[in-house]
Write a structure and sequence with these properties.
The structure is a homodimer of 347-residue chains. The first copy, chain A, is α/β, with parallel strands linked by helices and 347 residues long. The first copy, chain A, folds into two domains: 191 residues, Isopropylmalate Dehydrogenase (3-Layer(aba) Sandwich); 136 residues, Isopropylmalate Dehydrogenase (3-Layer(aba) Sandwich), CATH 3.40.718. In chain A, 41% of the residues lie in helices and 24% in strands. In chain A, the strands form two sheets. The first copy, chain A, has a ten-stranded mixed beta sheet with strand order 2-1-3-12-11-4-5-10-8-9, with helices on both faces. The first copy, chain A, is globular and about 55 Å long. The first copy, chain A, starts with a strand and ends with a helix. Strand 7 of chain A pairs antiparallel with strand 7 of chain B. The structure holds 3-isopropylmalic acid (2 copies). One 3-isopropylmalic acid (IPM) sits at the interface of chains B and A.
């Protein structure tokens, strides 16, 4: 039987609860659709850091490279390890090492979910550059601790990096409603963002069937709230995509509903699937985290593996569950109850 | 009679329409409250650029320095002059030269205005660092035009710059409901944002009466939509403040309602007051721009000049106008009609 090797990285806090839920759903989907998962779970996390002095072992990336995909829960527990250490020790290096340059996040309201906006008609696909830009990790501090201290942080954009994410955006727009919004801030950031706009402009000639519009990040943030139905595919830099996808999560009812895929489109290394939410240490292990975002991320993994029927069935099971009012109201149902409902809706 | 010297910079597009409206209201407020305005208007704009090759004359900053305050409309007309040129030639240099390091933007719903959120209970004051950070203008491009091209943009944060804006934030929080939210992204930007967080942490000891919380920008964007009533004063870097204040404008019903003040708190140079909206070339001179944001910015100018009674009266006149349904629905009323209504509500 076709078997997919999946690495599980539950990580910290509620990451563990929701990964377990997603695993159960994925395994049932596999059983019903004629394939198998061989999963290996790795305890890399802030606890692991406290014990070993690093977020993952030296050969962590090598270990992960032999899998077909990675399912991640959440990383970070600021009271144990500063986020700037934990994220740069686990999540961000995986995205970079495996050239998962496209971070895809769908934003729409699940049935039964009430969002914060009066308007509930929108279906947005955000695509975030995931390997460089504002999160390049380049920078430093001089005269540290003195009155003259200066901190610099450098955003680095390469032509290759910008071109490939924009092409990915154009392709996605072509496969959807044909509209691409490219987000920059070229009126205030004259180097990086003007560069991005120029490449958008140039590539648009190759995709005459896609209607591309450039927006400034501030205007786009406002648009996502005032006119989300005017958007189809949105492509943005690492930071801007990060911000817009939390905003997307907000308009879709909260982080409990926001799924994501860190895709290596060339398939030269595994892709990684994770809910947008963080580890939420305050509610860790209380059994009240909403697993919908993690399960939805699992459906995106199925899609990526080519198991489109199983993916569609998982999505249908999620939708049937929230439509029944289970898992649709943040904080109302327990993780278990939501997972069971999705499992029983799945066939 | 007490006379204030005001420089008017109508700028481009609808900036001209709304500046005229604000001027009329301010002049009536002065007349009724026993002071005068001596205004001088300067045509610095994209048209000026096309004629003179620069957005303002070489002695522009010197000219403005003799005024008590500056009232600006909007700058930019991308089809005439790239924004990266026009903004860096007029708006941004004024903010920097006059050390207007605090950009203040109030976000609340005016009476009669329906926002996009189901919830309409919020009263947020955003404070944006206005002179450095992500908009320092430092960067460059190498291997331009080739496949190996790299663009870099460097955010520069100085201790002085960060400390003074945070102190300003703490003071504002103290004068309001005592809550300060400081916004960074220190989990992904390890130099600049960790630096900001450290200073926030250190200063908090000096303001024991202020409850300060640090948020990541992505989480804050979501919070402004999901729980805006949980926020009081929000302080953020140049870019993050820029994004959050457009989002703030969105939740308050649109850019037609969003006012701002670029403040030099030391009063060593003039402060500048401007609506958050841009020049909107597509509706320039059609007489349909909403002047409320510009008039509200004028009220902030009165406040800054110490004319608090007049400021309160202008705010009351704005509120009486929108409460009557005039200017409260984007696009419904003409600039003239809204201005007349505010003028007649003003006494
Ligand atoms: C935890 C953090 C580094 C991460 C990011 O900003 O990439 C998260 O916010 C996300 O959106 O996946
Ligand atoms: C026009 C632009 C440079 C400006 C800014 O980003 O500062 C504007 O968006 C604002 O918010 O005042």
């Amino acid at each position: 039987m076709k078997t997919y090797k999946i690495a599980l990285l539950p990580g910290d806090g509620i990451g563990r609860d929701v990964t377990e839920a997603a695993k159960a759903v994925l395994e049932k989907a596999a059983a019903r659709n004629g394939f198998l998962f061989a999963t290996s779970s790795y305890p890399w996390s802030c606890d692991y850091y406290l014990e070993h002095g690093s977020m993952m072992p030296g050969n962590g990336i090598k270990t992960l490279s032999s899998f077909d995909a990675i399912l991640l829960g959440a990383v970070g527990w600021p009271r144990k390890v500063p986020d700037s250490v934990s994220l740069h020790g686990l999540l961000l290096p995986i995205r970079k090492a495996f050239v998962q340059y496209a971070n895809i996040r769908p934003h729409r309201l699940l049935p039964g979910v009430q969002g914060p906006l009066r308007s509930d008609k929108f279906d947005i696909l955000c695509i975030r550059e995931n390997t460089e830009g504002e999160y390049s990790g380049a920078g430093g501090r001089v005269h540290q601790g003195t009155d003259s201290e200066v901190a610099v942080e450098t955003s680095i954009f390469t032509r290759k990096g910008v071109e490939r994410i924009l092409r990915f955006g154009f392709e996605q727009a072509r496969a959807r409603r044909g509209k691409l919004a490219s987000v920059t801030k070229s009126n205030a950031q004259r180097y990086s963002m003007v560069f991005w706009d120029e490449i958008t402009q140039r590539l648009s000639a190759e995709y005459p069937d896609v209607e591309v519009t450039s927006y400034h990040i501030d205007a786009m943030a406002a648009r996502m709230v005032m006119a989300p139905d005017s958007l189809d595919v949105v492509v943005a830099s690492n930071l801007f995509g990060d911000i817009l996808t939390d905003l997307g999560a907000a308009i879709q009812g909260g982080l409990g509903f926001a799924a994501s895929a860190n895709i290596n489109p060339d398939r030269s290394a595994p892709s990684m699937f994770e809910p947008v939410h963080g580890s939420a240490p305050d509610i860790a292990h209380l059994g009240i985290a909403n697993p919908i975002a993690a399960i939805w991320s699992g459906a995106m993994m199925l899609e990526h593996l080519g198991e489109t029927t199983a993916a569609a069935k998982v999505m249908a099971a999620i939708e049937a569950t929230t439509a029944r009012g289970i898992g649709s109201v943040p904080g109302k149902d327990r993780t278990d109850a939501i997972t069971s409902a999705v499992l029983s809706a799945l066939d």
